[in-house]
Amino acid sequence: MSTQTVAPGSSTWAALKPSDRTIEITTKVLMVLLAIVLIVSAFVTVFPFFWSALLSTRDRSEIFSTGISFAIGDSLMINYARLQEIMPFWQAMFNSIYIAFLGTTISLLFCSMGGYAFAVFKFKGKNVLFGMLVGSMMIPPVLSLIPYFMIVKFLGLMDNHMAVWLPFTTTPFGIFLMRQHVVASIPKELLEAAKLDGAGEFRTYFSVVLPLLKPALATLAIVQFVFFWNSFMQPLVVLTTPENYVITQALRSVQGIPNTPWGAVMLGTTISILPLVVTYLFASKQMISGLTSGAVKG
């Protein structure tokens, strides 16, 4: 049933009952308040990125000067040169891209396989195992930091990029998301038809299931890429050589030096945000579709 907006002062408005008028006014007030909340939330979200980009054009004295100014500074190239001096910036960017791309790619494969298995196969203890998997998402990641370090050291992966991406390629959220998408979007009749045509489990997965998981895969790709890109605690624990630093670790490592060149740090921070923005712009529609598909069924 559609709801028409009635303009105050019209004949229809005069014919409305007092209760109907109250509902109409309340609806308009709520819509205005919602718009204000959304505008303020968008401003609070975007302003830090705008401010870091603005500070990247200023030197240290201008950044710490009294008063707030939105004028663009003239120290951008100086800050870029200084950024190259205080850290291996582009090497750290390459390390982050390498870890994020490799970890995300393998995570899409493993999580989609796990979600498909939980959705299709029947085996003893499946519900208990799936419940434990979902429950593990409530455990704070910091609690696993010491066991993570001990395992990495035991395997001889200290100061190795594999230690940063390999343990996080199979995540409970990823398996849960894939399982929900398979249940909601892939009919059992389609899988049975593939088996009748002689397709094995792996061929059914790669030829039938995987192409239909594109929205969920795009969602998981963004989530995992952002996770690997923003990862800080794990690299801080296992990576010790500056040449192996990821971008978050490299930016943090220069904040303790005397007279920290904050303009250069802000410039590096602004540049490091760009891959995340590009990734989201390319996969935002698929991400929204993937997040809403699992709410239909199952």
Could you characterize the architecture of this molecule?
By secondary structure, the protein is an all-alpha fold. It contains 15 helices and no strands. The protein has helices at 11-15, 18-55, 60-63, 76-86, 89-120, 126-135, 145-154, 162-165, 172-185, 188-196, 201-212, 214-230, 233-238, 247-253, 262-293. Helix 5 packs antiparallel against helix 12 (214-230). The longest helix has 38 residues, at 18-55. 26% of the residues are buried.
Task: Summarize the SSE layout with pairings.
Layout: H1 11-15, H2 18-55, H3 60-63, H4 76-86, H5 89-120, H6 126-135, H7 145-154, H8 162-165, H9 172-185, H10 188-196, H11 201-212, H12 214-230, H13 233-238, H14 247-253, H15 262-293
Number of helices: 15
Low confidence ranges: 294-298
This entry's quaternary arrangement is single chain
* Helical fraction: over 70%
Structural class: mainly alpha
Total number of beta strands: 0
Strand content: under 5%
- 3D shape: globular
Radius of gyration: 26 Å
List SSEs in N-to-C order: HHHHHHHHHHHHHHH
Task: State the end-to-end distance.
Answer: 28 Å
Largest sheet: none
Whole-number average pLDDT? 85
Protein name: sn-glycerol-3-phosphate transport system permease protein UgpE
InterPro entries: MetI-like (IPR000515), MetI-like_sf (IPR035906)
Domain ABC transmembrane type-1: 93-283
Subcellular location: Cell inner membrane; Cell membrane
